[in-house]
Amino acid sequence: MLANQADGCAMLEAHEDAEVFRLRLGKALDFEFNEVSYLPTCGEKAATHDLASQDSFAGLFQRRDPREAGPILDIERALAKLEKASRDPVPQEARAAHRSHRPERSFHQGCICGLYSFFPFPVFLSDNFHTYRHLKRSATRMHTLSIRDLTPRETHTFLSGTHERLFPSAPPVTPEQSLTVWDLIGGRLNLLAKVVKRMDVEEAAKDLVSEEKEWLHSKLGLIVDHDDDVMDEQKVSSCSFLLFQHFAKLASAPEAHISAAIVQSVEEPVDEAEKSEALELDLVNALPDELDPKVTYREAREIMTRPDYIVDLDAWHIINVDQHHNVRPDSRLMLSVFREIAAEEDFQEKLDSVRDRVDEIEHEKKEERGADDDDDGDTKTPADAEERLV
C-alpha cells in the first residue's frame, strides 16, 4: 500500500447487519447491486439503479429474481465481479471486523473468509478476540499482527515534541515526566493526545485514571448487601474483580516497578532487517514481562471461576486476549485503575461480602425451589398408604 500510494485499495467499516455491510462494501468498491424496490404509488417493481442493466426475465414467469436472495449473495456477486475486473492484487481492508460477528449465520465463515479466495492480502482490523477465533477456523495463510502501544522512549518523543509545539513558552517535558505518564496511562495514542493538550501532563494523566476508575465502577461496581434482583450482575462483578485483583498483584510485585534499567532493556529495531524480522515475528513494540503483566487464558478461567465472562470483558475493552491466548489489561490505564481499586482499604472486605451475599441468595433460591417441588407433589397420608397395601 505504501509502494503504490494506496492505489486500488478499498477500506470499509464492518457492521453486524449484513444489509449494512453489503451497502458499505458496494460503496467501497464502487459497485451497484441493481436493487429492486416497490414504487410507493402503484406497488409495481422498479429498479433503483440502471434499468438497462436488468437482464433477468424471472419477473415474466412470476419467479423471484436471483438477486433478491439476500445480502450474502450480493456480497459474493460483488467479490466475484471484482475478481474478474481486477488483474492486479487488490488489498481489501475491513475496519472494526468484530462488529460483523454473526454466530447464528456464520457470517465470518460464509462471507469474510471468502475474501481469501478473491484477494491476495485482505486486511482485517479488530480489537476483539472472537474475530481471530472465527477466522482461524478456515484460514490457511492468515498472519496476525498486534498493534501495540508506544514504548516509554516513543512516548517521550511524542510528548516532548507535541507539547513543545502546542505550548512554546512552557518548560519542556522531561524524561521523568514522560515515564510517569507512561506508567499511568501507557503509550496509547488516543490517550496521549488528550494528555499532551494540557499544560501539566502528569495531572492530566491522573485525571484520566480517575475518569476510567469511575467508568469501571459504573460498569462493574461492587454493591454490598445487594438485592436478589441484581445477583447476576454482582456475580459478574465479583468474578471480574478477582481477575483485576490478580493483575494488580502482578503489577505491584517488586520486579514490576519501572526503573531506568527496565526501560533501557526494551529492544527496538534499528535497521530495516531488524524491523522486518520484528514485523514477521509480531514483536513490534513488544514489552518485557516486567512491564506487561499477563496471565494465560487457562489461568484467567481458573481465577474468575466463570470463563464465559471473559468474552464480555474483552468486548467492553477492559481486558485483552491476544493470538497466543494471553490475557492482559486492555491498556496501561486500565491496569492503573486495577491497582488503585485493589489498594483501597475496604476492597477485600467488599469483595468477600459480595461473594458471600451471592452464595446466600443462590442458597435461598435453591431452598425455595425445593419447597415448591414438595408442594407440587402428591401429599401422602398413612391412610393412603394403607389403602394401596389393601
From TrEMBL:
A Pfam family recorded for this sequence: WHD_AAA_fung
Alphabetized InterPro entries for the sequence: HTH_AAA
Region of interest (Disordered), ranges: 352-390
AAA protein C-terminal winged helix domain span: 218-362
Basic and acidic residues: bias regions: 352-369, 378-390
Designated name of the protein: SPOSA6832_00147-mRNA-1:cds
